[in-house]
User: What shape does this take?
Amino acid sequence: MHDSIVGRVIFFFLATVALRYLWVRLRSAVPTRLRWPGAILFVLLIFLAVAYRVLPLGLGLLGEATFTAGGFWLVTLSNWLVTCLVVDLFVLVVWINKRMMGIGGSWREIYQGLSRKRTSAIPVLAFLTVVVSIAFWVYGFKNQLAFQVTEQRVHVDKPLAKPLRIAVLSDLHFDPLFQINKLDRLVDSLEKVKPDMIVFLGDMSDLPSASLDAMGIGDRLNRLHAPLGIYGITGNHEGYTLQRDPHLLDWIELHGVQLLRDESICLPLLCLTGREDPTVAKLTTGLRKTLPEILPNLADATQKPWLLLDHQPVGLKPEDLAGLTLHPDLGVSGHTHAGQFFPWTIAVKFAWPLAQNMGSLQGVPWYVTSGFGQWGPAVRVGCHTEILIIDLEGR
Assistant: This one.
């Protein structure tokens, strides 16, 4: 879902409707005298997944326990949603079938009978959902640690003295559950791949800079090297974290990442444009610039490959296309996590015009990476974490 005012309104409306539906189905298994406490606990567990934004949890046991409880509850709710939808669909099919065959009385009598059976099955279904969620968590946690290196060859119709190897990293999401050995393996992998350039596509951290130093993350970032430089852009989570730590972006640049914030640069072999994420722009300048306002030098961009970095894969909006005489040769985004875990690995394809892998947005070749980390539940089920390696070839 796009991180805009309209997108947020739609998201919160759908989330409210879905949570109401899930609680209505679940409360039949809760004793009447415990339903109000149960409803409060139901909501509180959801809040734990985002509590780090408003509470000074820090690192250590408290932060890890909060993230784990909130994340596991989100996985459980997702599985419970699938369970409820499947059961209700089955009830609907049986209801229609019985009525058409004239079995079981009137429409209301048939439905009431099926509803009673569904209610009696809720405790068993809820127990099975928790068991499945535990399996999701065990498998998904290991799966998100086992990142893969994805190679994508891209041809551009411009002269290029030699192929360029660009390492793309998105959505690292440093949080209390982030495993530092995963970052060590990332650094080792990049040393073997030997990219000409490294780019970060935003959503690097959900923690303030002091916590990042305490985890030793800055030391790992300092080990990264690429001949043509290391560049980055902001993501929506930088906007959230900046409200608690206004020095986060300075910390990122201090550790070797040159941020492109609605600006372009042209290097000897290619041009780069980095777009500010709308969430960060609202906190700083108020509105991010249009693409024509931040074009690279046209004399350079006409002769060199032009790479566009934008955290959210929204593509080019009408205000970006207006008066644009030259289009980027390749756009690269993250943000979607490819859904991260089932059933959102399916739902994400309906929320974004391009949710994963290579495609096209407004006629521009575009790649959306599934990202290196995760938000909320520290799991990947139905997709993978990755380092994206783009081999850029010219004519």
About this structure: Residues 61-101 form the longest helix (41 residues). Residues 147-393 form a domain with the Purple Acid Phosphatase; chain A, domain 2 fold (CATH 3.60.21). The chain has 13 helices and twelve strands. The first strand starts at residue 148 and ends at 155.
